Amino acid sequence: MKKLFMLMLSFIMLLSVSACGKDDSQPESTGKAESKDVYESVSETDSDGYQSESQEHDTEEEPDGGVLNNGGEFVGYNGNTYYWKRNGASCNNAETFANFSYMAGPSDLICISENGDETVLTSAVADGKIYIASRRIYYFGTDSSWYSVDLEGGALKNHGKVNLITVEETTGNVIYYDYNDKKFWREDSQGNRVVLNNDNVDSDGADPYFLTVGNGKLYYATVNPVEDEKFVVAVIEADMQGNARLVNTFTHKKEKLVGFGMEAVLNDGILYIGYANIQGSGMFYSFGGIVAINTLQERATEYLVRPDSETPLSHPKLRLCSYIEEGELYIMFSTGMDATVRDTCITDGIKMLKVSTGKISDVSYGILPCDGNGGIVNGALVNVNGEGRQFTILSADTMESLGYTDFDGNGKEEGGYLLDFVSIVGDTAYISVSEISRDTSKDIGWRYGYKRDKTTVYITKAHTDEVTVLYEY
Question: Per residue in 94-105, pLDDT tens?
């Protein structure tokens, strides 16, 4: 009888590990874990004739309790997948540039268990992005504030009118930026906060720009006008205890602009920063470049691509590729025209920079996904893995069978289709596509207005090229 009782207890504990809305007794692991890369890469060729073979690239298994796709629209944790299920009332269905808001009304926070069962955890106004840290689910909601709930959808906390930047991979600390006092700070699982900026390092009145988090450090920059025609960009490193230091600086031509865009990737202690001006009411990027800053040794800033060169950046997004040639690092970037802050993926004017030689070559088949989103290339839906390799999610034939042959709806008189997002959790991809049509009541001069007619969210498994509808609204 005792043995039977123990077997039943073990079975109940096993169920509690993966059931939606249930906590577990496994050791805490709150950091982000890369999903096991089971998607197949597609061929990729540069002007030197390099072509990668189509193959699988396995990575290490994610640790128990690891978070998959943290900060995405669909996020995995302990075998469950979490997402906000939208509806027609939760979306502002007509906007200029088809820049629809998903905070017009409440959505349902859904947990999909390993066996496919769905549980509604709570309902709230939320923009769709989800972070998981310390067994809590974080989301941006009403009153321009960040909130969190536990894994059962309860114990609501308001974290204030701040911007959640990221979750530190190794500790699960949440990194915020406070617009009011221009400070970065981290919050641990107990709610303790530490300010990471240092007034002795920051320039007076300068707005900090987040760059990246890596090796237990926060990297950010301040942009300071020093002359009528020049900015000095100061790159700063701060540890999680609030000790900050100036790493290096670089200069940039000052132009009439409405903002400044920067994105960075950290590789072997080198910070590669893509930067560009933001101009006009259309929020277009222009006059951009790439610099390399050594965070481990005192070295002069390297200007890899200058804004006044023949190949200036048109978007600050960079993509590192380490697989092309042994011992060499390549950077993909865009020189295509008309890139904006709204773009979710760049497919035009892609170039490849060989870091060791500075040689820049054309890329006939390349994308720059922004915020993890995929893109449409030659009719196929593709994305990029952790090595920088492209892989196919859905073939061109499958996309055509779904009726999707034109994804350039934003900017056309008749409308079309928009790829809202692609979220990859383990071996599963979730894809949202919206059908839009023109709405002249939302036009502002040359800026076209559109209405959202229907959105379909699909689900597909790796290597199947089979797709089913998860839901529509």
Answer: 888 887 888 889
Rounded CA-CA distance 236/234 in Å is 6
- Nearest partner of 464 among 38, 117, 58, judged by Cα: 38
Other Cβ atoms closer than 10 A to 147 = 20
CA dihedral sign, ordered 274, 278, 283, 284: negative
Strands in 11-129 per DSSP E? 67-68, 74-77, 80-85, 94-96, 107-112, 118-124
> Do 359 and 385 contact (CB within 8 A), yes or no?
no
Reported pTM: 0.82
Residue 284 host element (H or E): strand 284-294
The phi, psi pair for 33, rounded to 5°, reads -115, 135
> What are the strands, taking DSSP E only, across 374-439?
375-377, 380-384, 390-394, 416-425, 428-438
Across 86-140, the runs of DSSP E, i.e. the strands, are 94-96, 107-112, 118-124, 131-133, 136-140
Q: CA–CA separation, 287 vs 234, rounded Å?
A: 19
**Tens digit of each residue's pLDDT (9 = 90 or more) over 316-325:** 889 888 777 8
